[in-house]
């Protein structure tokens, strides 16, 4: 995890100390169930509860000798448990009963953090979209002026994209919130399935229905795909804001502090660095998602090829995604919008943005389509070639441009606003 792109709450969740604390919890829950079945003394469970969570430094010290993290953890944990009770720790379990069950619990918590950040982003987007619902601006297709829209409409599209990502995250959380305590190769040969039921129920996890010693890795791949899609939605927002901040456009601007410095050489620069950073992080998320797919296929009941990969991609993907979404919400919330400049850009092409409305009006008056299209196109080409206003060019074709304005394009705009208001009413 890179500290620069990790917020404290996510860093704490994926820390070694929290991982070992979760492992201790799994071991105690499993022993509780074993005691209820009469297979572990209750006194041993009490000794396990009193034991301290192993210090990560001590686990690392033992691992240098044993070259096995779970065995090193168990050794460190049992140092604080009387020998008579320590022998009951991990009874009937295999390493990944501990690792994967704890991982499912942690991933569910991490996904909850990311979901909370995404809900805040949805709330900010819908709020600012409603604020600027009538802020007219030129719409652009292929990067070129098309016809009028509003800034609120533009933000609404992003809000609904984040909303769809939230649904994907919720499904992915359900997929990864799974554990297994089924023993070697997942056959329950040395452990009662009721132990697994107790452990997973206490942790809020479902049970892997057909375990193979490990939890199926398509679950983790699904989560990282959902995180990557959310990251791409944030990238779409950030890319739009980057384009609207260009010197020749300057319709919006990121918030700046008094300490802001945009360039080491050019004091005048006001670069869209926050938006650029969000776009870059989306590339990382796609890479993590692709790598997660490589982890789905394991040899037979399990191998270890996925482990080293997951130590990187799972915490990094969730921490980067959480950071990206959190910063996107801050960016949109503090964004400066230049409504006057947006309005001025509508008229920048001398009325050409109204060509589709003129065409529709001619068709409505019974003019044959090809003739109407060619007439309007001829007038548009004349304006582009000479700089003469589109209205004057149309007049030479016998067409009156009177009464045209952005409002003509927003007649049925309120149906979208109604949908947006319903989205805005959803609780964070």
From TrEMBL:
SMART domains attached here? ADSL_C (SM00998)
Alphabetically ordered keywords of this record: Lyase, Purine biosynthesis
User: What broad class of enzyme is this?
Assistant: lyase
Name the pathway: Purine metabolism; AMP biosynthesis via de novo pathway; AMP from IMP: step 2/2; Purine metabolism; IMP biosynthesis via de novo pathway; 5-amino-1-(5-phospho-D-ribosyl)imidazole-4-carboxamide from 5-amino-1-(5-phospho-D-ribosyl)imidazole-4-carboxylate: step 2/2
Ranges for the Adenylosuccinate lyase C-terminal domain? 350-421
Look up the record and give one Gene Ontology term from the biological process aspect: 'de novo' AMP biosynthetic process
Q: What reaction does this enzyme carry out catalytically?
A: (2S)-2-[5-amino-1-(5-phospho-beta-D-ribosyl)imidazole-4-carboxamido]succinate = 5-amino-1-(5-phospho-beta-D-ribosyl)imidazole-4-carboxamide + fumarate; N(6)-(1,2-dicarboxyethyl)-AMP = fumarate + AMP
**CDD domains per the UniProt record, alphabetical:** Adenylsuccinate_lyase_1
Q: Which GO terms describe its molecular function?
A: (S)-2-(5-amino-1-(5-phospho-D-ribosyl)imidazole-4-carboxamido) succinate lyase (fumarate-forming) activity; N6-(1,2-dicarboxyethyl)AMP AMP-lyase (fumarate-forming) activity
The membrane spanning regions, by residue number, are none
> What EC number(s) does its UniProt record assign?
4.3.2.2
Name of one Pfam family that matches: Lyase_1
One Gene Ontology cellular component annotation held by this UniProt entry: cytosol
Family according to the record:
Belongs to the lyase 1 family. Adenylosuccinate lyase subfamily.
The protein's name in its UniProt record? Adenylosuccinate lyase
Q: Which organism is it from?
A: Streptomyces mexicanus
């Amino acid at each position: 995890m890179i500290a620069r792109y990790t917020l404290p709450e996510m860093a704490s969740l994926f820390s070694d100390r929290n991982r070992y604390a979760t492992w201790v919890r799994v071991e105690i829950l499993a022993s509780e169930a074993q005691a209820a079945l009469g297979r572990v003394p209750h006194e041993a469970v009490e000794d396990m509860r009193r034991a301290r969570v192993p210090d990560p430094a001590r686990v690392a010290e033992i691992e240098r000798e044993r070259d096995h993290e779970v065995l090193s953890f168990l050794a460190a944990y049992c140092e604080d448990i009387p020998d008579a009770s320590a022998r009951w720790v991990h009874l009937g379990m295999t390493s990944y009963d501990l690792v994967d069950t704890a991982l499912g619990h942690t991933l569910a918590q991490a996904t909850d953090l990311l979901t909370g950040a995404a809900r805040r982003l949805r709330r900010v987007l819908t709020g600012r979209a409603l604020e600027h619902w009538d802020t007219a601006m030129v719409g652009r297709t292929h990067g070129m002026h098309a016809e009028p829209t509003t800034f609120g409409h533009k933000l609404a599209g992003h809000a609904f994209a984040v909303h769809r990502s939230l649904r994907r995250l919720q499904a992915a959380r359900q997929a990864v919130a799974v554990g297994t305590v089924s023993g070697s190769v997942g056959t329950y040969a040395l452990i009662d399935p009721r132990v697994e039921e107790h452990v997973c129920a206490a942790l809020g996890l479902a049970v892997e229905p057909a375990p193979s010693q490990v939890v199926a890795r398509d679950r983790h791949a699904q989560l990282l795909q959902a995180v990557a899609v959310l990251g791409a939605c944030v990238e779409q927002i950030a890319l739009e804001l980057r384009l609207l901040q260009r010197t020749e456009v300057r319709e919006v601007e990121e918030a700046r502090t008094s300490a802001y410095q945009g360039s080491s050489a050019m004091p005048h620069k006001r670069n869209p660095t926050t938006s650029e950073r969000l776009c870059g992080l989306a590339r990382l998320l796609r890479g993590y998602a692709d790598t997660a797919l490589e982890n789905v296929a394991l040899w037979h009941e399990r191998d270890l090829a996925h482990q080293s990969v997951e130590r990187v991609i799972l915490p990094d993907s969730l921490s980067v995604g959480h950071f990206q979404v959190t910063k996107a919400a801050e960016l949109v919330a503090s964004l400066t919008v230049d409504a006057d400049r947006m309005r001025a850009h509508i008229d920048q092409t001398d009325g050409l943005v109204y060509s589709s409305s003129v065409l529709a009006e001619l068709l409505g008056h019974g003019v044959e389509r090809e003739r109407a299209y060619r007439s309007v196109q001829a007038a548009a080409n004349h304006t582009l070639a000479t700089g003469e206003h589109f209205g004057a060019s149309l007049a030479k074709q016998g067409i009156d441009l009177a009464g045209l304005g952005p409002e003509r394009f927003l007649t049925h705009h309120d149906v979208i606003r109604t949908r947006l208001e319903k989205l805005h009413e959803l609780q964070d």
